[in-house]
Design brief:
single chain; alpha/beta; four-stranded mixed sheet; three-stranded mixed sheet; 23% strand
C-alpha cells in the first residue's frame, strides 16, 4: 500500500517524527530536510505506520459521524445516553436517566447550537465531578492543585502548568470513570514530578495501580473520543 502523508516542517525541529492521528499520517520534519530523506524514513517505518493507520480507520469506520440529531448515542462516564433534540424558546440541556434532552431555538443553526449546548452541559458536569473529587482527595499526598478547570483540547486529555493549575478536556468524561480518575491523578503527579521520569511513573503507580490499563484505553480510544466528528468509542470486542 502506498502511504499518503502530509509533511509539516519546522525550523526548530532537528529530527523526523511520525504522527498517526484520525486515520491520517503526518510527518514532522526539519525545515531543510530533503523529501528523499523523508520518503526513505517513512518507507522504513511502513509496517508500523500501516498497522496503526488500519487500526484507527477501523475504529472510525465503526462509528457514525456525529450530526447532533435526536437518537444519537452520547456517553457520560462511559454510560450510553440517547440525545433528544427539540425546539424551544431558549437553549437547555438536562439529563433524565439514559437520555439527554437538549433544546435549541428556532433561529439557531441546525447543527451548531445543539453541539454547543451539549458541550456546555459536559463542561458543567465535569467541573462538578472535579469539585467532588478534590473535596475528598487526601491531603496527606501533598498534591493539591492551585486551581482546576475544564477546556476543549483536541490532542490531549489534561495539562498541568508550572503554576500548579490543572486543566482537562471535557471529552475526557466520555471515558469510563476509572480512566477519568487515572488521568486526573496523572496530572496531579506532575505537581511533584514535572516530567515523565521513572520517579513520576512510580508515583502514578502508587496512587493509581491500574494506570497501565487506563493508559492503554486512552491510546486505543483517543482517536475517536478526542475527534470532534465522533466523540464516542466502540465497546470492547465490538470494533
Amino acid at each position: 500500500m502506498t502511504l499518503i502523508y502530509q509533511i509539516n516542517r519546522s525550523k526548530r525541529r532537528r529530527n523526523l517524527a511520525i504522527k498517526v492521528a484520525k486515520g491520517k499520517l503526518e510527518v514532522q520534519a526539519p525545515w531543510h530536510m530533503s523529501e528523499a530523506t523523508i520518503r526513505a524514513f517513512v518507507n522504513d517505518k511502513h509496517a508500523w505506520i500501516d498497522k496503526h493507520l488500519q487500526r484507527q480507520r477501523r475504529q472510525l469506520d465503526a462509528l457514525a459521524p456525529r450530526l447532533w440529531e435526536s437518537g444519537e448515542r452520547l456517553r457520560w462516564l462511559g454510560e450510553p445516553m440517547t440525545l433528544k433534540v427539540a425546539t424551544a424558546t431558549r437553549k437547555s440541556a438536562e439529563r433524565y436517566g439514559a437520555e439527554l434532552f437538549v433544546t435549541k431555538t428556532a433561529r439557531s443553526q441546525a447543527d451548531k447550537e445543539p453541539r454547543l449546548t451539549v458541550i456546555g452541559w459536559y463542561k458543567r458536569q465535569a467541573e462538578a465531578w472535579l469539585d467532588d473529587f478534590f473535596a475528598t482527595w487526601p491531603e496527606h499526598h501533598g498534591l493539591t492543585p492551585s486551581t482546576w478547570s475544564i477546556g476543549d483540547f483536541t490532542s490531549k486529555w489534561g495539562h498541568c502548568t508550572r503554576k500548579q493549575a490543572l486543566k482537562f478536556t471535557w471529552k475526557l468524561w466520555i471515558a469510563p470513570p476509572w480512566v477519568v480518575r487515572n488521568v486526573v491523578i496523572h496530572e496531579l503527579c506532575h505537581l511533584k514530578e514535572f516530567n515523565h521520569s521513572k520517579s513520576f511513573w512510580r508515583l502514578v503507580a502508587q496512587l493509581s495501580p491500574d494506570y497501565q490499563a487506563a493508559e492503554a484505553w486512552l491510546r486505543q480510544h483517543g482517536v475517536t473520543v478526542l475527534n470532534a466528528d465522533y466523540l464516542d468509542y466502540c465497546d470492547e470486542g465490538s470494533d
